[in-house]
Design a protein that fits this description.
By secondary structure, this protein is an all-alpha fold. The chain has 24 helices and no strands.
Length: about 575
């Protein structure tokens, strides 16, 4: 484990951590996810999807609670992955968390601009896509978010506490207003309550923004190095997550119950068409206006600035700390490992700012970003379920403020759920996640190639760099000149990685980390190949049909979990941590 010359200030108490978690979870998700979830799953289907999504995230969060409270390290998934399986897993986990968190401030900025278009014309088109003025507005929001995060940790935490009061009051106001005064029971019973069957429920988890809405639970994990006490980490996550699950479920009930079909101009029960109506640019605000609650619509328009703004402020901090942690462990340039005099990773914050601007340019709509953000996010989620029982075996003497009972069952169940979330994203989105992951591996090995980092030999760096570039160029040629597409790339890269892994095991100095971490890459590839050959409802070619696709997914995910447990070991990073803790 690399030496860190500057440590974080442990200024965050229990209330601050609860605020941070809830702040991240009450962002643009509550403003838009109810709309998109109901468009995929219908009224009752979307409510079930929220409960299922909350259960999935809770299972994953429980595994993180023991791990992060026992090993309170800034950066979350990166150090944990390295301590159980070595450098390769540490990088992939950190990369997934970093990329998904980099996307979050942009998606929150887009949400703010989209709602603002209700009273400032010319910001977005009728499909919710940013226009020129909208881009300018979004960039201004990103600049404000950057400046707030360049302040000290204490100011950051206090800002969250102030904003949190508002962020809880407004959703609660919507619930207590719409459910008793505007609820239509027929929307839950008569008008196509399960719009697309079970497929719609699972699609809503990913493409509807449900899993995305809960991603804030990782705030205390990523900020673990700044918590005053270890036990604050798990307490803050569980409390905030349970509260937000209840809040989102009630908001979904309020939304679907208040839809007026005649007002929005579509056939009753045609939930899939509601994203092409006036609801798209401000679901709750538009409903409030349509049913005569103009005062509530005005409040919601104001909240559309505050709620996403608070989440954007939170999430600009997290990727900076993840990337700073990655730099400490040699996965990113050392330039980004430095903290400023206030203990803030300002260099990593500025990098995240510019990358966020790039995402706004490439994905200028809320629904354009949410699917790939969620699928990338679960790459990092895998580490919690995979590591909890390994660390019990390899570091039994480390104090655990929170011990998860039943981890032998909960951990594999949570692991299978992470696998399924990738699968439920459908094809071709799952293939895009493969590309994002492999792009990270290219950076990982290319950095070692340039720096001559002692963790990898120069020959290893050359070999891995070429092993990633060659299949990419091969697939690019096929795409440009023939009718082949990404399935060829996925299969080819799978073969190349298999050969590379075997060669590395036999010949290279880094074979332990490579072999113990290769399951991670193959697991992602397997999930995406399964989505390609799965049911047509998920964009697949319908080779494996329901329910056999779920059976196959569960068995394959369980196999990868068993392999992950077998390859986990007491790494040098874990040894260094234990020795440092005992000093």
């Amino acid at each position: 484990m690399a030496e860190v010359s500057v440590s974080y200030k442990r200024d965050l108490g229990l209330v601050n951590l609860i605020m941070l978690n809830a702040m991240g979870m009450i962002g643009s998700g509550w403003l838009f996810a109810e709309l998109y979830a109901s468009s995929y799953a219908g009224s009752l289907g979307s409510i079930i999807a929220w409960l299922l999504g909350g259960f999935i995230v809770l299972m994953i969060a429980l595994t993180y609670m023991e791990v992060s409270s026992a090993f309170p390290l800034a950066g979350g998934s990166t150090p944990i992955g390295e301590m159980t399986h070595g450098k390769l897993v540490g990088f992939i986990a950190g990369w997934g968390a970093w990329i998904s968190d980099i996307m979050t401030p942009p998606i929150e900025a887009i949400a703010m601009v989209t709602y603002a278009s209700a009273f400032i014309p010319g910001l977005v088109n009728r499909h919710g896509i940013l226009l020129t003025d909208g881009y300018i507005f979004a960039v201004a929001i990103m600049i404000i978010v950057l400046l707030v995060n360049l302040l000290s940790v204490r100011v950051f935490g206090n800002a969250m506490s102030i904003l949190m009061i508002w962020k809880w009051l407004i959703p609660l106001l919507v619930i207590v207003t719409l459910i008793p005064l505007a609820f239509h029971p027929a929307n839950l019973t008569t008008y196509n309550p399960f719009y697309a069957g079970y497929h719609g429920i699972f699609y809503a988890l990913v493409l509807g923004g449900i899993i995305f809405s809960f991603e804030g639970f990782r705030a205390a994990v990523n900020m673990a190095g700044e918590a005053r006490r270890k036990d604050y980490i798990w307490k803050s996550v569980i409390i905030s997550l349970l509260l937000v699950i209840a809040l989102y479920t009630l908001l979904q009930v309020a939304f679907v119950g208040a839809v007026r079909w005649s007002v929005i101009g579509i056939k009753p029960g045609d939930w899939g068409a509601i994203t092409s109506t006036s609801l798209t640019n401000g679901p709750f605000a538009r409903i409030a206006y349509d049913i005569g609650f103009g005062w509530l619509a005005v409040i919601l328009l104001v909240d559309a600035v505050i709620s996403p703004g608070g989440a954007g402020i939170s999430y600009a901090a997290y990727p900076a700390r993840i990337f700073q942690s990655m730099a400490n462990y040699g996965y990113a340039p050392k330039f980004f490992s430095k903290l400023d005099r206030k203990g803030v990773p300002s260099r990593a914050l500025i990098l995240g700012f510019f990358l966020g601007l790039a995402f706004i340019y490439e994905f200028p709509g809320w629904d354009l970003l949410v699917g790939i953000l969620t699928s990338t996010l679960v790459i990092a989620y895998v580490v919690g379920p995979a590591s909890i029982n390994i660390l019990r075996r390899t570091a039994p003497d480390v104090e655990r403020p929170f011990t998860l009972r039943g981890s032998s069952v909960i951990a594999p169940v949570a692991f299978i759920f992470t696998f399924l979330v990738i699968y439920w994203s459908g094809w071709p989105l799952s293939g895009e996640v493969v590309i994002v992951t492999l792009a990270g591996l290219l950076m990982f090995f290319f950095l070692y190639l340039l720096s001559g980092n002692e963790k990898f030999s120069r020959n290893e760096s050359y070999m891995f760099f070429l092993s990633m570039v060659v299949p990419f160029l091969f697939s690019l040629i096929l795409v440009l000149y023939y009718t082949y597409s990404w399935p060829v790339y996925v299969i080819y890269i799978d073969i190349v990685l298999f050969i590379v892994s075997i060669y590395s095991y036999l010949r290279l100095s880094g074979k332990t980390d490579i072999i113990s971490g290769s399951w991670y890459v193959y697991m992602l590839l397997a999930a995406m190949i399964l989505s390609y050959i799965g049911p047509a409802a998920y964009g697949g070619i319908n080779i494996i049909k329901f329910p056999y696709d779920f059976i196959a997914d569960g068995i394959i995910a369980l196999i990868f979990y068993i392999v992950a447990q077998a390859t986990g070991h007491r790494t040098k990073s874990l040894e260094d941590y234990v020795n440092t803790s005992n000093e």
